[in-house]
Amino acid sequence: MIQAKLRECQGCPLFSKGEGFAAGELVQDSIITLVGEALGFEEAQHSTPFVGAAGEQLDRALKKVGLYRGSVTIGNAVSCRPPNNWLTNAPWEHACLNHCRVHRQNFYKPTTRVYVTLGAVATRTVLSDHGYPYEGKLENWHSTVIKLDDNQFLVPTFHPSYLLQGNQKLFNAQCFALRLAMEIAAFGWAPPHIETHVDPPPEVFEASFVRELEHLDSDCAWIAVDIETSSTSGEAEDEYLDSGLQRITRINFATDVYNGWTVPWENRYMELIQMVLNAPNPKVFWNERFDVPILKREGVTINGVVIDAMQGWHMLQPNLPMGLGFVAPFYCKVGPWKHLSSTAAGRYAALDAAATLQCAYGIAADLQGEKRWDAFHKYMTTFDHTVLHPAEDVGLMLDMDQVKSLQESLDKELSEIEERIQSQIPAEVMPLEGGWKRDPGDKWPGAFKKRVEQVTTCCTECGETDVTTRHECSE
Questions:
Q1: Residue 150 or 463, more confident
Q2: Long-range CB contact pairs, 168-174, < 8 A, 24+
């Protein structure tokens, strides 16, 4: 039975537009609270959160980690069903989220140790209610731990309905977040402190970092290297972008997982940067295919084995996202940091290096545990670099004017081929405009394959084709 809205709902834009009402499933003295987005159709009909398909998906996750509904409080950021389930970017989103804060206070209980937010809307809302900013993709927030106060924490994860939209590959990631919440609720959370060294003076950088490289084992101690460019951020770190016009703004290093270093890409640091890159230790990049070509085009050399940590992760989990922000919670306790790229660029960059190193060590251990490290190492150092990489990607200087000229000539030749193909299409099957339809997928220029004779009825008076026996002739 659909429950009527409460008196407190008056004045909300969804008071008349929204359907149903559910305050949530409040469990006395529960230490874990799950927060979703809003009611769906089934939830509005039963006045209970998560009873439809998304609820069944959530129940599967709870069962897998050893939880059950009676042990956790379950609520939503919005207590009714928005029109057509539309909340994100809807005209009423901001107003109804603010109005429903009075209802959310019901499950903001002092006994709660961990809030598990399901989806971006819930994560943004609970963080906002506690005075914390949220920006960026949920991928960079999932399974991280945010300390709300001395005794309460927040662990974001994906909404069950998102998994039902073709993203079942993230089911284990959702279960990981639930297990993490259970661990925090039982034992607390004490992440290690990561020191960030942002833009130290060159003499300090040399004495405290560069000279210390001499004391590292050249075979066992890895150096994490990461660059920031003028037109990219952590949002695109898992993509292989055309890096021909990228300009480096800063470079980041780490030799241990508790210290991240970052310095600006300036002349006063260049000699020291080259000394680090010349060290014999293996160099770890998260996305080597993006970073290394840019560095080589800047004229620097890189000594030692180059390790692409993202490719190692891809070998372990080929179906999962490859961004560092997504992978980091599985290997380290760095907490969310990707959202700092626009507000605290230096700290963001230094944490990038520390997280890269810690993830790389964890990925290597997993590959070795599965006896796949040798295969990965062979692919990374031999086949990948000598066979798969084009000249530009390995740092060879190209004449971009010639590249552009070649591209223009190829485009012209393709256009001429297309015109010749279109000219071969018989007039009776050629559309009046737009040309002959291309093959599905638009992979190759369209082609007329064969002519098929087809018998059709035609009115001899008006000329209309495909007529039936009941045709009413205009003539």
A1: 150
A2: 169/319, 169/320, 170/320, 171/60, 171/61, 173/142, 173/143, 173/320, 174/61
Tell me the average pLDDT of the chain.
86
Residues 6+ apart with CB under 8 A from 294: 227, 229, 243, 246, 248
Reported as a single tens digit per residue, the pLDDT across 365-420 is 999 999 999 889 887 766 555 555 555 555 556 666 787 788 788 888 988 888 88
Angle between helices 171-187 and 53-65 (to 10 degrees): 50
| Residue 80 in tokens | 């009714």
DSSP states of 317-379 as a string?
-TTS---HHHHGGGT------GGGGTT-HHHHHHHHHHHHHHHHHHHHHHHHHTT-HHHHHHI
Is the CATH number 3.40.50.300 carried by domain 195-394? Answer: no
3-class DSSP assignment, residue 128: helix
Tokens for 236, please give them.
């695109």
Q: How far is it, in rounded angstroms, from Cα 167 to Cα 320?
A: 10
Domain 7-187: state its class: alpha beta
Which residue reads 């069950």 in tokens? 160
* Mean pLDDT, range 11-21, rounded to an integer: 89
Domain boundaries, the chain: 7-187, 195-394, 399-475
Of the candidate ranges 18-32, 345-359, 457-471, the one whose mean pLDDT is the lowest:
457-471
